[in-house]
Amino acid sequence: QEDRVATVSLMSSMADSVKGRAVVGQVLEGREPELFFLVFKSLIIFKGGRSTAYKNSILQKSNRTEQYQKDGAALFRVQGLRPDCIQAIQVHLAASSLNSSHCYILQDGASFFTWLGSLSSPSDHVLLDRMMDKLCPLKQSLLVREGSEPDRFWTTLGGRSEYSKEKCVKGWPTDPHLYTCTFQQCVCNNVIYFSFQ
User: Fold this and answer.
1) Single pTM value for the model
2) What is the mean pLDDT of the chain?
3) How far apart are CA 13 and CA 46, in angstroms?
4) Whole-angstrom Cα distance, residue 25 to residue 132?
5) Using N-to-C axis directions, what is the helix angle for 2-17 and 52-61, rounded to 10°?
6) Are 34 and 78 in contact (CB under 8 A)?
7) For strand 142-145 and strand 111-116, is the pairing parallel, antiparallel, or unpaired?
8) Cα 52 to chain center, whole Å?
9) Which tens digits make up the pLDDT trace of 125-171?
10) CA torsion angle for 26, 49, 135, 36 (degrees, to 10)?
11) What's a Pfam family this protein contains (predicted)?
12) What is the DSSP code string of the chain?
């Protein structure tokens, strides 16, 4: 709730700074349209949050690995549409987060592993290389193919465990696409917000 209030406040101030009527869209995590990622080009999403509720939930779980720390351990799934539109999304630091259809970057302090799933494509490998250059351009990573992981790789992930080894079809919504829009008027300076469902 705290994050939502802060978001609405920020959107309102941004809309006020634009001449004319601003249009603001809500995009739900995991259901982002292709255009959303094209706006950002290369996007790195770190786990973590600044809200009090998020920090309290981390303290209750006693799991500090959920928030990104520069010199800590982190696992990123790399995905994208093409080399100029890539995302690295931090996922839970566990072997169960791996998927044979994807490529990953595993950070262990100052060391990096790039993991190629056995079902990933050559274009996925290109995206992985490009993202590694953006995430840490001066670091050399150790290339690891699925099935030939060193012990340190598994130790960083907290040990071996089962993960998805089935082919995952990667697709993006294609045009034409029908959206349902819900319009609501905010009490903040008569700015109209809409959300895709």
Assistant:
1) 0.70
2) 79
3) 25
4) 30
5) 150
6) no
7) parallel
8) 22
9) 999 999 998 888 888 899 999 999 999 999 999 999 999 988 776 55
10) 0
11) Gelsolin
12) -HHHHHHHHHHHHHHHHSSS---EEE--TT---HHHHHHHSEEEE-----SHHHHHHHHHHT-GGGS--TTSEEEEEEEEEETTEEEEEEE-SSGGG-BTTSEEEEEETTEEEEEE-TT--HHHHHHHHHHHHHH-TT-PPEEEETT---HHHHHHTTS----B-S--------SS----EEEEE-TTTT-EEEEE-
Q: Which amino acid is at 170?
A: K
Q: Is the pLDDT of residue 34 over 80?
A: no
Tokens of 136: 């840490």
